[in-house]
């Protein structure tokens, strides 16, 4: 019996060692890219993505979706340096800051969560299409740091971020197209 017990402990230890070894070689970075065509010229879409307060109408991360979430704005009203931060029990803490703005082509921004342990760099690119349309491509790239839990959750993060980007682009299309129709 003693011999069998030692064998069980040896196998458990070996299994734990292999499990941790696999965790250490898992990737810590993600990349999610989604696109959508919008029936509005780039300048009409750009106005909604360069102004963080305008994100209230289309962002997948809106205050009304998370009880207790309150955004705090800092910096200029639009463009590089514009910033929004938050801290709530439902979402944790975070900061989103516009770092690059090239009207009407693209807006680049950084995001940091969990006191900066999780970081992302995003770009919203606007490509003019024939007929006054725009292809908006949202690229999200980030790193989870060196946490084991983060490495295990990477597939879930990529899947949920993909859903968020699709929801955001759909809402951006609706807002931009509704505003363009009202202006006509």
Can you characterise this structure?
The chain has helices at residues 2-25, 42-49, 148-183; strands at residues 29-38, 72-74, 83-88, 92-102, 106-113, 118-129, 133-143. It is an alpha+beta fold. It has one domain (29-183): Alpha-D-Glucose-1,6-Bisphosphate, Chain A, domain 4 (2-Layer Sandwich). The protein has a 7-stranded antiparallel beta sheet with strand order 1-7-6-5-4-3-2, covered by helices on one side. A hairpin with a 4-residue loop joins β5 and β6. The longest helix is centred in the last third of the chain and has 36 residues, at 148-183. The N and C termini lie far apart (85 Å).
Provide a compact summary of the structure.
With 184 residues, the chain is of the alpha+beta class. It has helices at residues 2-25, 42-49, 148-183, and strands at residues 29-38, 72-74, 83-88, 92-102, 106-113, 118-129, 133-143.
SSE inventory with pairings:
Layout: H1 2-25, E1 29-38, H2 42-49, E2 72-74, E3 83-88, E4 92-102, E5 106-113, E6 118-129, E7 133-143, H3 148-183
Antiparallel strand pairs: 1-7, 2-3, 3-4, 4-5, 5-6, 6-7
């Amino acid at each position: 019996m003693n011999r069998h017990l030692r064998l069980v402990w040896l196998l458990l230890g070996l299994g734990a060692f292999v499990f941790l070894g696999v965790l250490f070689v898992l990737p810590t970075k993600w990349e999610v890219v989604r696109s959508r065509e919008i029936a509005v010229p780039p300048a009409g879409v750009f106005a909604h993505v360069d102004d963080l307060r305008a994100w209230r109408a289309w962002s997948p991360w809106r205050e009304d979706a998370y009880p207790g979430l309150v955004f705090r704005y800092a910096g200029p009203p639009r463009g590089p340096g514009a910033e929004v931060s938050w801290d709530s029990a439902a979402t944790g803490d975070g900061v989103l800051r516009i770092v690059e703005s090239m009207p009407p082509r693209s807006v680049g921004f950084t995001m940091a969560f969990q006191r900066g342990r999780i970081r992302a760099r995003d770009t919203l690119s606007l490509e003019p299409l024939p007929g006054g349309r725009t292809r908006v491509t949202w690229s999200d790239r980030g790193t989870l740091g060196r946490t084991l839990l983060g490495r295990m959750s990477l597939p879930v993060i990529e899947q949920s971020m993909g859903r968020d980007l699709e929801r955001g682009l759909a809402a951006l299309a609706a807002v931009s197209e509704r505003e363009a129709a009202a202006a006509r």
